[in-house]
Amino acid sequence: MKKFLVALVAMFCVTAVSAQVNNLGLRFGSGVSITGQYDLSQENHIEGRLAFGNNWVGLTGLYNWEIAKFDWTPGLGQWFFDAGVGANVGLAGDYFGLAAVGTAQLGIKFNDAPVSITLDLEPTLSLTGGLHFGVGSGVSIAYHF
User: Fold this and answer.
1) What separation, in Å, do the N-terminal and C-terminal C-alpha atoms of the chain show?
2) Contact 123, 100 (CB under 8 A)
């Protein structure tokens, strides 16, 4: 099982390097995640997260839709609200986990810097080891290029 997860992480890293990623960042939640986003259009994007915690590692893939944009602070930046769905695989010791994941993100992309800050909620339905539901949250900062 560990070999499978290592192969999956390696595949994710190669794909992230070879794909034309639109932003890279860090997400702070129950652990720390390295995030990458690829815009499919102006309204949707895919996001990958490689997460590390205390004796666990996880890989999450999300498909996100732009729900709304807000002009709350036009001099500072463009506010946005996105939502999406995806899946998570993880390894903690000898335990392998698979989960369905949702996300709701509120953030701002700044005008004067290629940076965004996002606050998110992430409902998760664990599909291995019995069905378990939980909601996590996190704060992300990303550099756009």
Assistant:
1) 36
2) no
Nearest to 71, CA basis, from 111, 37, 29: 111
What CA–CA distance (Å, rounded) separates 126 from 55? 18
* CA–CA distance, 117 with 48 (Å, rounded to integer): 17
Each of the 145 residues of the chain gets a pLDDT tens digit; together they read 555 555 555 555 545 444 567 999 999 998 999 999 999 998 999 999 999 988 999 999 999 999 999 999 999 999 999 999 999 999 998 889 999 999 999 999 999 999 999 999 999 999 998 899 999 999 999 999 8
How far apart are alpha carbons 75 and 143 in whole angstroms?
19
The letter for the amino acid at 82 is D
Pairing of strands 32-39, 132-144: unpaired
What count of other Cβ atoms lies within 10 Å of the Cβ of residue 16?
A: 16
Q: For the chain, list the domains and their CATH numbers.
A: 2-144 (2.40.160.20)
3-class DSSP assignment, residue 106: strand
Give 34's strand partners: 26, 50
Question: Considering the entire predicted model, what is its pTM?
Answer: 0.82
